[in-house]
Amino acid sequence: MVPTKPVLLTGASGTIGRLLSGRLAALGWTLRLTDIAPLPIRLPDRASFTTADLEDQQAVNEMAEGCGLILHFGGISTEQSFETVLGPNFRGAYHIYEAARREKARVVFPSSVHAVGLYERTQILDQDCLLRPDGYYGLSKAYGEMLARLYFDKHAVESVLIRIGSVLPEVPDERILSTWISHDDFVRLIDRCAAAERVDCSVIWGQSNNSRGFWRKDARLKIGWTPLDSSDSQAERVHGKVTDNPVVERYQGGKFIVVDYSRADFPPREMFESE
Ligand code: 15L
Q1: Which chain regions cross the lipid bilayer (predicted)?
Q2: How confident is the prediction for the chain on average, in pLDDT?
Q3: What is the value of pTM for the model shown?
Q4: Are the C-beta atoms of 206 and 164 separated by less than 8 Å?
Q5: Do the Cβ atoms of 187 and 20 come closer than 8 Å?
């Protein structure tokens, strides 16, 4: 379905932003692209590009004017210091939700595996599990999910919160056999986020149909999305591709966890048991 109003895409110069710019424009969408960094690809048909900082609330409001959907892929996407993440991810997300409230726009908020990264890989999670962020980046995603709930309950701003695993063309290692989402499944999911009649404030696990997946129940029926791809056929190719760090290998968040990790042991399993 082609949205009737323009769609604002933040983070357009990033990896996911570039994928979505090209693929959604090819579907006929009218995109308003923005990023703090220049757009490293040719401007797609019907798209405009504005260089802007998510910390600039006026700029965000102006770009969102007249939009019916905001795909908020801007901000920091790796584990960084609290001060680095604070402006783009915390204040930036607030600006996006304020703009969505003004425009009565729907938001697609990319949460992450890193909002639940300190669950062990043997634990199977449902959408209502307690969040267990694995760093300041994961914390910003947990905050974004709470922000979305606040704006839905208080202001009726609809959101799809996609807890994205790993959006990659192919699986690079054993961990990502669990977290992988193919480009095609991901683009189909974004299309459903726009097309679904009602999304309320829904959580989707952003993973393909991987038999090694860590995640189970979510709102995919409501959104009308079914992943068609699976990492399973890539298992043989990445067999044995693991790190030699027991903390990395124990938890769903993988390498992000060991950035600034100062525990001498493992975090307790039972503290946030989901069931
Ligand atoms: C994420 O949230 C990151 O943005 C991405 O770069 C990957 O590292 C992904 O998680 C992952 O953990 O595989």
Answers
A1: none
A2: 97
A3: 0.97
A4: yes
A5: yes
For residues 201 and 149, is the Cβ–Cβ distance under 8 A? yes
CA of 25 to the centre of ligand 1 (A): 24
CA distance 229 to 135: 30
Cα–Cα dist 181/199, whole Å: 21
Ligand 1 pocket, residue 230 CB under 6 Å: no
Q: Which positions ≥6 away from 64 have C-beta within 8 Å?
A: 8, 70, 96, 99, 100, 102, 103, 105
Q: Distance from the CA of 124 to the center of ligand 1, in angstroms?
A: 19
Cα–Cα distance, 93 to 144 (Å, whole number): 7
Q: Which two tokens stand for residue 164?
A: 């994205």
Which pLDDT band, with edges at 50, 70 and 90, does 272 fall under? low
CB atoms within 10 A of CB 64: 25
107-108-110-115 Cα dihedral, nearest 10 degrees: 60
Structural domains of the chain ordered from first start: 7-272 (3.40.50.720)
DSSP symbols for 216-266: ---SHHHHT------SGGGHHHHTT---S-HHHHHBTTGGGGGTT---SSP
> Is the per-residue pLDDT at 251 higher than 60?
yes
Instruction: Provide CB contacts within 8 A for 96, sequence distance 6+.
Output: 10, 54, 60, 64, 70, 72, 107
Q: How many angstroms separate the CA atoms of 239 and 231, rounded?
A: 12
